[in-house]
Design a protein that fits this description.
alpha/beta; Rossmann fold; 8-stranded mixed sheet; 8 strands; 17% strand; globular
């Protein structure tokens, strides 16, 4: 056997072994629900989906919207703290968590804002406080610009909106027909860990349990295909200029070490939204509700009570 042929076979063995190690099947929703639902979880049949949400506490309602590649678990500490004084409602958005994919494969911010309104109506919420992080914050400011009469106060955490359009390797794969099917089955745990380490300022906080949960929920049947579907609608972004129309009392919070969205965009939101308040946390990344949970929840409660 020639050296070239030997190297070729070794390469095929390495690639084949890597594919086998990182090939993961889908996980059924009932299996994941048994592992990741909370004692106060609820499931609402809506828009041909079974929407997973959590409702805790009594008082004025607060709705919490998570970021892309996340779930309502991101609000665990906020829910524990704020539910002492408020009715805290968090949900898995379509395409994420236990809720799973949208039946129409629609994932624009406009769809999510309309979905939020139908969700609020289903829960008979008249007026409520609205909080969003990342993608959830983009949905929140779109909703606030369309339906200000529905909101009491608005909190934006590391919000999408003013960042330039960029395409990562995963994003390129997700948009490429044929190749994007790779992402429906090949889901390396190290890639999930690398994503979380980019989201967090302190890598030591990325625990094996966190990696496992994010990996498992990504494998919820339909969620990986939803990832590639979202990539094809990623250019359908709402015009960020509409934030200037927001007249709801607004608090902007941001992690100073955010490697996903630069803190410079926090100042842009602060400048564009009339009378908005701003808080930037040191040593904090893209998910302040997780990495600086107690301080950010305390500040949010102070803002809601007019003490900020």
């Amino acid at each position: 056997m020639s050296l070239w042929r030997l190297l070729r076979w070794l390469l095929l063995l390495v690639v084949g072994g890597w594919l086998v190690l990182n090939w993961y099947g889908d996980l059924p929703p009932h299996q994941l629900a048994a592992r990741y639902a909370f004692s106060d979880s609820h499931f609402l049949e809506m828009d041909s989906m079974i929407v997973h949400y959590r409702m805790s506490g009594q008082g004025e309602p607060i709705v919490l919207l998570h970021d892309a590649n996340s779930s309502l678990h991101t609000w665990a500490v906020w829910t524990e703290m704020l539910s002492k004084h408020y009715q805290v409602i968090s949900l898995d958005l379509p395409g994420f968590g236990l809720t799973g994919p949208h039946p129409q494969r629609s994932y624009s911010a406009f769809m999510y804002a309309d979905f939020l309104e139908r969700f609020a109506q289903a829960l008979r919420l008249r007026r409520f406080h609205l909080v969003g992080n990342g993608l959830g914050a983009q949905i929140a400011w779109v909703y606030a610009s369309q339906r200000p009469q529905r909101l009491r106060k608005l909190i934006l955490c590391n919000a999408l909106g003013f960042e330039p359009k960029e395409t990562s390797l995963v994003g390129w794969l997700a948009k490429t027909p044929g190749l994007n099917r790779i992402l429906w089955r090949i889901t390396p745990r190290p890639a999930v860990r690398a994503f979380l380490e980019k989201v967090y300022a302190d890598d030591s906080r990325v625990s094996p349990a966190l990696v496992r949960r994010c990996h498992d929920l990504l494998r919820r049947s339909g969620n990986r295909k939803a990832l590639t579907d979202r990539a094809t609608t990623g250019d359908n972004r709402p015009p960020a200029d509409v934030v200037e129309n927001i007249n709801v009392p607004t608090l902007i919070v941001w992690g100073a070490e955010d490697a996903v969205l630069s803190p410079e965009y926090a100042y842009e939101f602060h400048r564009r939204i009339r009378k908005a308040l701003l808080r930037i946390y040191p040593n904090t990344g893209h998910w302040p509700q997780e990495e600086n949970a107690e301080q950010s929840a305390t500040d949010v409660q102070a803002f809601l009570e007019g003490r900020f």
